[in-house]
Amino acid sequence: MSVTKKNVAVLGLGAMGTALADALLAAGHRVTVWNRTAARADGPVERGARRANTAAEAVAAAEVVIVCILDYADVGALLADRAGGEVLQGRAVVNLTNGSPEEARSMAERVSALGGAYLDGGIMAVPEMIGRPEALVLYSGERAAFEAYRGVLDGFARSVYLGADAGLAPLNDLALLSGMYGMFGGFAHAAALVRSAGGPVAEFTTGLLVPWLQAMCGGLPAMAAEIDSGDYGATGSSLGMQVAHDSIGALSRAQGVSDELFAPVFALMERRVAGGHGDEGFAGVVEELMRAR
Ligand SMILES: NC(=O)c1ccc[n+]([C@@H]2O[C@H](COP(=O)([O-])OP(=O)(O)OC[C@H]3O[C@@H](n4cnc5c(N)ncnc54)[C@H](OP(=O)(O)O)[C@@H]3O)[C@@H](O)[C@H]2O)c1
């Protein structure tokens, strides 16, 4: 399907901004680039981008402005001051800088007050993945802007729009990362146990751990349904059975491996059982986490 060519600005040409600019160039858009350290624009300019001497000049040349710099706290100053706020009038700002939901909401208000449309984005990819089918970018904010520029955004990755609340993209981005770090933590503990017994971690990982985790992932939608309904029915794999013995903690200590990653999870499971939910499965642990609010 051919994509309508647009005038696009990219503010910020670090590793990620450069990958985004290159994807836009590959899709045939007219790309204007600006970076605080001017020399970093040389590569994209050699590949066909137009160089802007100021952020304001880049914004003025475009109908959609992609922002990707290191810190969210600097984005407001970049758009409102260095890019000259009035130049945002009638333009769409797509901010792909990582930040918090609160920062995204306040940026949406700020851009809207300057007459622009705002989309916040969470990039679920490393720069090398940009433009490839396995990359994913989450968006939230003005639906009309997402629909108008979806053809441009789809050149970066698979685009998923989550809703009008600009905070939804960063919230889901961080939730996905928290799932990933939980898996990495489990992997690190499992690898330490295998290594403590002299076993090759590589063989254990490909032969046993990856297929096991893939099988366990199959149970997540059913657990998610329990969490959504608040109905944690009895299960054959009850929490009471799971915490009857701290076998993993005991083995870790015996092998000289720290249980500092696993112990907090086990403590939450024990607390849930102490609260009278020993017949239920693991999903109810989320209720213990929600109590921290
Ligand atoms: N790289 C990844 O794997 C990845 C993945 C997902 C999301 N992200 C997000 O993408 C964003 C950019 O990451 P990156 O990997 O491109 O970082 P990077 O390679 O370190 O580049 C940082 C960029 O931010 C600019 N910058 C920093 N402070 C600035 C300021 N006060 N005003 C204007 N520009 C400023 C830098 O300009 P100078 O060249 O002048 O220093 C540079 O262009 C971050 O929010 C990051 O969390 C990155």
How would you describe the shape?
Answer: elongated
Tally of distinct domains:
2
Helix content: 40-55%
- Physical arrangement of strands within the biggest beta sheet: 3-2-1-4-5-6-7-8
List the secondary-structure elements in sequence, H or E.
EHEHEHEHEHEEHEHHHHHHH
Q: Under the CATH scheme, which class of the largest domain?
A: Alpha Beta
Q: Please mark out the parts with pLDDT under 50 across 5 or more consecutive residues, or reply none.
A: none
Rg, rounded, reads 24 Å
The CATH topology of the largest domain is given as: Rossmann fold
Number of strands: 8
Tell me the distance between the termini.
47 Å
Ligand inventory? NADP nicotinamide-adenine-dinucleotide phosphate
**Alpha plus pi helix count:** 13
Major beta sheet, specifics? 8 strands, mixed
SS-derived structural category: alpha/beta
Q: Output the CATH homologous superfamily of the largest domain.
A: NAD(P)-binding Rossmann-like Domain
